[in-house]
Amino acid sequence: MSGRLTGKVALVTGASRGIGRATAIALSNEGASVVVNYISSNSAAEEVVREIGADRAISVKADVSKLDDIEILIKQTIDRFQKIDILVLNAGLLWQNGTLEATDEKTFDKLFGSNVKGPFFMVQMATPYIPEGGRIMLFSSSLTSFSMITPNYLLYAATKGAVEQMTRVLAKDLGKRNITVNTISPGPIGTDAYYVGKTEQMVRMQSNLAPAGRLGEPEDVAEVITFIACDQSRWMNGQNIRINGGMTVG
What UniProt keywords are attached to this protein's entry (predicted)? Predict the structure, then answer.
């Protein structure tokens, strides 16, 4: 297959469902080989591999909040494809009961482990295998700039604020090797995970936050990620790209 990413290798964490799945397929459609990381959904991950083609994709089970699992994920990627051109750190936890009063140490450590520790050490362990011109994309949220945020998102927003600061510094540190580091910050996206615990009224209210009056779709995010992965984005570095249909502006 020929495309803008032919010959490139992409590792996408949390790629069996939602935004990760859409991203893995979008990158493959441009010619990239893809490592489909998952933590529990083996059948869903294998379905993504079949859609891409087993000649250009593998699935790897790994909990990217655990260093031993990260090592396994990187090793299996390199054993199969020898390099990592595109690192998309989509895996993470959404927590909607993170008020100051409701947060205990176990929950704090779980969220920071998944959303901050995982991406930090994924970058650390993957960087030796990323060639010049590589792309790293971390994930934050448009909630970090949304003035109507509720206290329920205190802990989640704190983890994403840390990710945004990591991006700023990594862009400088790795930019010397011509590796760009950017943050993807989606607004409400209609994935299976999004709908958990939400009433129809809540979905309708959040749909109306964007001028178009709808939720985002996984493909809306995947297509932006694909652009950043391509050579045309080479001068985009250290940026926070908010993909929310105008929910936040400025």
Answer: NADP, Oxidoreductase
Strands (E), 28-172: 33-38, 57-61, 86-88, 135-139
Range of the domain at 14: 9-94+119-143+160-190+218-243
Catalytic residue among 16, 65, 160, 233: 160
- Residue 153 designated active-site: no
Residue 16 in any domain: the answer is: yes
Question: Whose structure tokens read 């790293």?
Answer: 136
Tell me whether residue 160 is one of the annotated catalytic residues.
yes
Give the tens place of pLDDT for each residue, 52-85.
999 999 999 999 999 999 999 999 999 999 999 9
Verify whether residue 140 is a known catalytic residue: yes
> Is 114 considered catalytic here?
no
Q: Is residue 180 part of a domain?
A: yes
**Which CATH number covers residue 134?**
3.40.50.720
Of the listed 33, 59, 114, 141, which one is catalytic?
Answer: 141
Successive 10-residue mean pLDDT values, the chain, 250 residues: 93 98 98 98 97 98 98 98 98 91 96 98 98 98 93 95 98 97 97 89 94 97 98 98 94
Domain count, the chain: 1
Report the alpha-carbon distance of residue 195 to residue 218 in Å, rounded. 13
